[in-house]
Amino acid sequence: MTAGPVTLLPALCLLAAANPALAQTVPEGLSVSGSVRLRYEAIENQARAGFNADDELVNLRTQVKLVWKRNAIRFVTEVYDSRVWGANTGTPLTTNEVNTLEPVQAYLQADLGPVLGKGTTTSLQAGRFTLNFGSRRLVASDDYRNTTNGFTGIKADIAAPGGIKATALYVLPQTRLPDDGTSLRSNASALDKESFAAVLWGGLISRQRKGSPLFAEVSFLHFGERDATGRATRDRSLNNIGLRVLSEPRAGKFDWGAEGIYQWGEISASTAPGAAVLPVSATFMRVQAGYTFAGPWKPHLLVEIDRASGDGTGATYSRFDPLFGMRRADLGPAGLYNAVGRSNIFSPGVRLELTPSKRFDAFIGYRALWLADRHDAFSTTGVRDASGNSGSFAGHEIDLRLRRWLVPSKLNIEIDGTYLARGRFLEAAPNGRAGNVAYGSFNVTALF
């Protein structure tokens, strides 16, 4: 069979990574970069309801980015090609894993300089782009996941004297397509779409004085959605106000942090036409405290507590919606595991982070897992006991990550391993399952 342009893309990127001169023979003002990441992952005793107990998957994510710059103007375009092999009808496969040959980014950026006054800088961006917002717990360009979140719209970034920064945005989240099981398993292609049926807007302002470890931020985001042709939704209209304060880790010093988000608005009880509209009142909180020991390995010990509300038996909908946020940095891997997220969870934990050299870093962490409300599904597992009779303890999670640059800035490997010892709830709930969960992944990434 003759290889088409889609199947040739990863091979061309690997060729460019092995021959840097190929990436440098481009016109003046134009730069080309990219990466190819190959992942093998496997899981035993899947925690999520309704899927294979045991599964394995091969993921390939290829990115090619072109940047053209002239004076204060930049044009950026980036193609993602995310695909998998080894899935069957029982594999938890979604557009989080598959999105082939997609121009996720195509935007124009202008650096306007001190248009708002002496000492300020302003940047405007318009088009299609990925987005990291604040702590990334509501909006993030997820790196562990095989695909990323894309948005279409405008964004402004402002920096002012005294360490003050602000961001304002109005964007339409891209709907990744195709999204049916048959198309995903065959790595079919279709252009993602955006429309005014889903809108995200808001902004933040933060401050951190030069040389100070103290950081403070306040943010607001509104997400609104409505039904579109062929796509029923729960008509979410969610406001999110957040406050975050922290002190950055420093050798021989204690550090700390706290973040709170209050979410309110309304949501339909289901996607059915005419479904009742429910008021929303939900919360997320995180507190942490750490200490960085002196020494060449820079060990950082962190104690952390995360709580995201769940939906109870009252008339108000109280399950926290993490929108487009990341999970790997705090709670555990996505991919085949994807069991622990920022919904209906109370979880204290401890983590040890190590950085022996510029080429190697690692962490190991432990979390105890409870449901914030025993009547709702636990986090992102789909396991639920509406009666509340299965208790609220979900289990113990041990999470490990090792990363090593084999060739600095060119080739790295990553190993992730997660073990979930099920608690009473995950075993006793009507759609629960016995047996502890073991997940592992091996990743190799080439960059050029």
Description:
- The protein is mainly β.
- Residues 1-6 have low confidence and may be disordered.
- It contains four helices and 18 strands.
Give the SSE layout:
Elements (H helix, E strand, L loop, with lengths): L4 H14 L1 H5 L5 E15 L10 E16 L2 E13 L13 E15 L7 E9 L21 E10 L3 E10 L7 H5 L12 E10 L6 E12 L11 E11 L6 E15 L8 E16 L7 E9 L36 E13 L2 E11 L22 E15 L3 E12 L1 H5 L8 E11 L1
Antiparallel strand pairs: 1-2, 1-18, 2-3, 3-4, 4-5, 5-6, 6-7, 7-8, 8-9, 9-10, 10-11, 11-12, 12-13, 13-14, 14-15, 15-16, 16-17, 17-18
SSE succession: HHEEEEEEEHEEEEEEEEEEHE
Mean pLDDT: 94
Low-confidence stretches: 1-6
In CATH, the topology is named Porin
Please state the oligomeric state of the protein chains shown. single chain
**Pairing-aware structural class of the strands and helices?**
mainly beta
Helical content stands at: under 10%
* Tally of alpha and pi helices: 4
- What percentage of the residues does DSSP assign to strands (E)? over 45%
CATH architecture: Beta Barrel
DSSP summary, beta strand count: 18
The end-to-end span amounts to 28 Å
Q: How many domain units? A: 1
Outline type: globular
- Rg, rounded, reads 22 Å
> What would CATH call the class?
Mainly Beta
Most strands sheet: 18 strands, antiparallel, barrel
Keywords:
6% helix, Porin, globular, 18-stranded antiparallel β-barrel, 18 strands, disordered N terminus, 50% strand, 448 residues, mainly beta
In brief, what are we looking at here?
This protein is mainly beta. 6% of the residues lie in helices and 50% in strands.
